[in-house]
Design a protein that fits this description.
It comes from Candidatus Epulonipiscium fishelsonii. This is Dihydroorotase. With 450 residues, this protein is of the alpha/beta class. The protein has a domain of 308 residues: Metal-dependent hydrolases (TIM Barrel). It has twelve helices and 19 strands. The strands form three sheets. Strands 1, 2, 3, 4, 5, 16, 17, 18 and 19 form a nine-stranded mixed beta sheet that branches. An eight-stranded parallel beta sheet has the order 6-7-8-9-10-13-14-15. Strands 11-12 form a two-stranded parallel ribbon. The longest helix has 17 residues.
């Protein structure tokens, strides 16, 4: 494969210039200003971004157990259409990903897809927060990249410290769900707008208490800590203090596009597609998140892709489940609201959506260099389009961004040197090209548990 005339990005070396890329046997073998080769597959990327494949550290594919919301096949579809070549699945499935059996089940399906599918094993058995899961067993299994009880917090601080001490020698991160459940029960951010709309609120202290606690525990243990879905200015202040005053190099943090694009004043329409956890915060929090991205306090932009069935969201606001989808909108929302507004440079955006996630997840990707794996995304950043949830490949259509005009259309998603997604703009015979086979039903049998 030969990619010609694209604007090539490599954040690891601050490289951003027009170049050609030659790919053979799944690897990048040459990057030069002009390459002449007899490759059968030549992509003209003139005027397009050619970036390391996007990596999402925070995805819920709902499989096993909740396949009516999403399954591995539909989730991979959505990810590839969104430009992602690697995603990390959270463990809040049914059964929970807390043992070798479930990890083996997921690997047996994902190996048939084009996507690099990573797995976060559970910290505690059944996500109950009572005893540690089979961490030592899972840590050595293929594609396990860290541990989390995402969706729930390990509220027992002593148990969380024990988990950090246990996980540290494996060199894998803990992904912390930053929520003190004693403050649970609300449906939106606590404050004036919650009072105005008559909705029970969730205070920012629910997030900030756990951010502070887990920073302290990570400082004491030295375990790698990644703070998930940061949404408040107070959390940013705590992370900034830990990184600058305490010099913590084992601490990273993420936010999601909805936290720098939307605020709680928009909930007056009671649209359940704007209900997520943590909730949308105030306008001042939104500005703080943008500043945190710009300053580098926040390392990563993740999606927290959380699909739900239409019927589950089509209820009263307070009764609807938390969560929004994001794989098919993340890049466009981020590019439109961060790069086109001058908050981030193009290289900084790609660093937060590819290079830093790869580093945190211990993956040899997130870069375009000779010898590196050819996981590449090609993007048209010039043409505006409107997000249309009816065109999503995810089973979940629960997006707060439906109808929004954005820039940043994914043209190609290339994994291991093969095209796995190609947009209608470049492939005229069908709406999209997608080479993922249909899901193979594999029961959770004893065969997978040996």
């Amino acid at each position: 494969m030969l990619i010609k005339n694209g604007l090539v990005f490599n954040p690891t070396t601050n490289f951003m210039q027009q170049a050609d890329i030659l790919i053979k046997d799944g690897k990048i073998v040459k990057i030069e200003s002009n390459i002449n080769d007899s490759s059968e597959n030549i992509i003209d990327a003139s005027g397009k971004w050619v970036v390391p494949g996007l990596i999402d550290m925070h995805t819920h594919f709902r499989d096993p157990g909740f396949e009516h919301k999403e399954d591995i096949t539909s989730g991979c579809n959505a990810a590839l259409k969104g430009g992602f070549t690697t995603v990390c699945c959270m463990p809040n499935t049914n059964p929970v990903i807390d043992n070798k059996c479930i990890v083996t089940y997921i690997n047996s399906i994902s190996e048939k897809t084009g996507l690099n599918l990573l797995i976060a094993g559970a910290i505690t058995k059944g996500l109950k927060g009572e005893s540690l899961a089979n961490i030592g067993e899972m840590a050595f299994l293929p594609n396990v990249c860290g541990f989390s009880d995402d969706g729930k917090t390990v509220m027992n601080s002593k148990l969380m410290k024990t988990a950090m001490n246990y996980i540290k020698p494996f060199g894998l991160p803990i992904f912390s769900h930053t929520e003190d459940h004693s403050f649970s029960g609300g449906a939106m951010n606590a404050g004036q707008n919650a009072q105005l709309f008559g909705i029970k609120g969730i205070g920012r202290e629910a997030e900030e208490i756990i951010v502070a606690r887990d920073i302290i525990l990570a400082r004491e243990t030295g375990c790698k800590l990644h703070l998930s879905h940061i949404s408040t200015k107070g959390s940013l202040d705590l992370i900034h203090m830990a990184k600058t005053v305490w010099g913590m190099t084992n601490l990273t943090a993420e936010t999601a596009p909805h936290y720098f694009s939307l605020d709680d004043s928009l909930l007056g329409d009671y649209d359940t597609n704007k209900k997520m956890n943590p909730p949308l915060r105030t306008k001042s929090d939104v500005e703080a998140i943008k500043e945190g991205l710009k300053s580098g306090i926040i390392d990563v932009i993740a999606t927290d892709h959380a699909p739900h069935h239409y019927d589950e969201k089509n209820v009263e606001f307070e009764n609807a489940p938390f969560g929004v989808v994001g794989l098919e909108t993340s890049f466009a929302i981020s590019y439109t609201n961060l790069v086109r507004t001058g908050i981030l440079t193009p290289l900084e955006l790609i660093e937060k959506m590819s290079t830093r996630p790869a580093q945190i997840l211990n993956q040899d990707s997130g870069k375009i260099e000779v010898g590196s794996v050819a996981d590449i995304t090609i993007i048209d950043t010039e043409k505006a389009y409107k997000i249309n949830k009816s065109e999503f490949l995810s089973k979940g259509k629960n997006t707060p961004f439906d109808g929004m005009e954005v820039y940043g259309n994914i043209e190609y998603t290339i994994v291991n040197g093969q095209i796995f997604y190609q947009s209608a703009n470049t492939y005229t015979n069908r709406k999209y090209l997608f080479k993922l086979s249909n899901k193979t039903e594999l029961p959770l049998s004893k065969k997978l548990c040996v």
